[in-house]
């Protein structure tokens, strides 16, 4: 899995740093983990890691998001909300 998942303005995101580039994921069958790195082939993006735990039915039972410093800076400067 490599590439960008960017739904653009149809999702309400117009901030250039709010891309969704990722290069893969890790799983043990019960937990999925993937990273949106700051540095991408097309420039910087908001950086964070997502983790999801699945129950016995394969449904999400827990979802966590861990923000990187670049993404935290975007939030601190209120750039994300001001982009709408």
Q: Which strand order spans the largest sheet, edge to edge or round the barrel?
A: 3-4-7-8
> What is the number of independent domains?
1
How far apart the termini lie comes to 29 Å
Low-confidence stretches are 1-13
Count of runs of 4 or more consecutive helical residues:
2
Largest sheet: 4 strands, antiparallel
List keywords for this structure.
about 80 residues, mainly beta, two-stranded antiparallel ribbon, disordered N terminus
What features would you describe in this structure?
Helices cover 14% and strands 38% of the residues. A hairpin with a 3-residue loop joins strand 3 and strand 4 (31-36). Strands 3-4-7-8 form a four-stranded antiparallel β-sheet. Strands 1-2 form a two-stranded antiparallel sheet. The chain is built from two helices and eight strands; from the N terminus they run ββββββββαα. The protein has one domain. The chain is mainly beta and 84 residues long.
Summary?
The protein is mostly beta strands and 84 residues long.
Topology diagram in text:
Blueprint: E1 3-4, E2 21-22, E3 25-27, E4 31-36, E5 39-40, E6 43-44, E7 48-54, E8 60-67, H1 69-76, H2 79-82
Antiparallel strand pairs: 1-2, 3-4, 4-7, 5-6, 7-8
